[in-house]
Records
---
Amino acid sequence: MIDRPRVDLFCEDRGHEQFARALIERIADKLDQKPSIRTRNGRGGHGKAITEFKAWQRAVTNGYIDHELPDLLVLLIDANCIGWAQARRELEQAVEPGIFPRCAIGCPDPHVERWYLADPQAVQEIIGIPPPSDPGKCERHFYKQLLRQTIQNADQPIASLEMAYASDLVAAMDFFRAGKNQPSLKHFVEQIQSALQQLC
């Protein structure tokens, strides 16, 4: 059993990183694991995250960098309106399974802020009011604005970013309810659970 699994995380930005960390830690805690999470990329947006991952993977493959391979590789990159299943397939094709046998891929559809709002009861518990009904839109920054609006309507402070609520929202989240609302989140949770359970 690996009680302190090494997890390497590639994602787009701080909002993705905070959500992924909170999710991994919550799932690992139920398995009595204390993961060591190393963020390999957490800035620069969608394109840079994918480019950086491919370059890093090549460098590891060719021995250009001395790197201790993770027990679990986690990629969290927005689907950006192409659909989460297609976005996931594209990322799966980019991963070398011989190097990373355990991999969890998350593709929020269309953006990660939709996952923050996936469980309205958790949002009400942590922020103070439920979010508006999800209109199912695919517009740039729409869900980020919806999350910010919910926080402001609850008269909660936005200290620096809306993403400061990530760990509290993930801790309060009912994964079944959230996954029913957001199938892409359900798939990501199941992949992380399965990978960490294999390490047990």
Note: The chain is about 50% helix and 10% strand.
---
Amino acid sequence: MSRHDKTVERWHSPRVGEPVTLARWGWWGTPVLVFPTAGGDAEEIERFLMLDALRSLLDAGRIKVYSVDSIAGRAWMERRGTPEERAALQNRFDAMIAEEVVPAIRHDCRSDSIELVTAGASIGAYNALAAASRHPDLFRCAICMSGTYDLSPWMGGRHTADLHFASPLHFVPHLGEGPMLDRLRSRMFILPTGLGRYEDPRESWRVAEALGARGIPNRVDEWGPEWDHDWVTWRAMLPGYLAAVC
């Protein structure tokens, strides 16, 4: 069996109430959980050639790449249910990541304490930001590319408790001093964005301001107008950032 052979695990998640898929590539190294874009599935990054872009890191045993279905993202994109129901699903998706997906990854890595790196683009960047912000005990770094971070426009003007706790832009400014904030101050958030078509760097700067105001390490990297909101950009971005942190 090739050390690069893909493995796929599926189970029914009681938290989101539907089947979930977790795919893995690689044989050794830092576990990296990559969230899909919008309504993408666990194998989206393979179809869009991200694994080819990461091949040297996989070959060297520096990373093991995992990806999971974008269950909440699919509900937002399809406008499934009411806004309140979608915000509630986003929170259940977060619970699934923390209580089902991360334990499955740790079991695969044969460690019950290994910290993960997370990454994603577009809505995937939001999920990477949210996972690392809400669970700094599980994730040590988030690489959030070309992110869409404010879910408020999809809520039709409603602001619910589920939205508040699902959205780092909303809950991070209100974090009190204590163990969670202390742990977040030992994490790193990297926010690269292009300046080309369909990119909105203001979203990344809003996140940077919210994190920075609480003393949470972060940086925004602007890649210039030739970099569009597209997989070409993200395939160029992710290998270098992972090489720096893994």
Note: Strands lie at 7-13, 18-25, 30-35, 63-68, 116-121, 139-145, 188-193, 218-222.
